[in-house]
Amino acid sequence: MIRLSVTISVRVRKEVVELADKMVRLGLARSRGHAISIMIERGLKEVLKEVKFWENIYGEVEELKKQGFVLRHGGLTKLLEEDRSG
Known about the structure:
Elements: H1 14-25, H2 32-66, H3 75-85
């Protein structure tokens, strides 16, 4: 699989740049950009898990609607909020 990269400009907190610089100094990354890419990719795994979880929830809700279940206004939101805080 060929991975294409795209250059973008983005503002980050000073601490992120300092961490990127440390990663370069320690040989953990080739450059600031590489260091930030590593940070994003590692964090991306967690974000992808959460997105997948919520996609499944909303998909299941749509399936329930197709089967004729009626959701009370706000009821799903309350359940989802409880699940996220738990």
